[in-house]
Each structure stands twice: as structure tokens, then as C-alpha cells.
Amino acid sequence: TLRDDVRDVVERTGTYDGTGMNYGLGTVLTGLGQLHRVSGDEEALELMLTILDWHMEHGRNAVGMAWAGRQLHPYRLNLTLPAYAYAYHATGQQRYLEGGIEFLRFSGPPEVITGVRTSSKQYRTYAPFLKLAHEAGVLDELERRMAGGG
Hints:
The chain is mostly helical.
């Protein structure tokens, strides 16, 4: 039912939440990915990719990030990183890996947070993408940048 409701919005508007890659959109994208993973529902995967593709192509902010609108600083707990990771694993298409890496570079590494609730949200956001980022050498790059080495 949820998939069908999201599909109706996408068919009517061309995307889902054209205002930008935010927490709510990330929840929808990762939910569609999980539906595909659990049930094999190809329509859920295609819908997730349609939304992600639209944002990658049309939803760019003033600095060129797939974020849309005027937003220049993403919400650090954005759930689109797991969607990029799942899209890459499900399709093998390099553009999803590259789009996720671009977004990770923009949003930066996870913050040091002591609260359990916020820390768990951040873990949920970054963990699915960290293995891909490590394999691509991006974590080393982020560490050098944090240490002031460019």
C-alpha cells in the first residue's frame, strides 16, 4: 500500500519530495530498498531508483549537490546514504556509488555524539555506506581532510 501511494505521487509529480534529499525522503528510499530486499518486489526497486535518479539529475543545489532547493548544508542524519548503497548493490551501477560518495564528501563524516538516540540514528545513516566508502578510499581522504592535510 505504501509503495503504491508513493508510486502515485511519483507518477503525478515526476518525483517524491522535490524539495530535497531530506530525512523523510531518505526514509522512503531506504524503505523501498528494504521492501525489495525482503520481498523481491521489483516495482519497489524501480520506484526507489526512479526517485533517486530524479534527484541525482534534477535536484541540484547552488553548489551542484544532489540536494535541491536552496539547502547548502545537508541534515547529517540523512538516510539517503543507505539508499545509494542499496542502489549500487542491487544494480551494480557505478553512478550510485559515485553519487553516494559525492554526498558523503558533502555531508562529512559522522559527528561525535554521546546521546544514544542520536548516535543510533547516525549509525543507521552511515553504516550501510561506510564499507563502500572504505573500498573506494574515501574514508582515508576524509581522515586526511579532518587532520588538516587537504
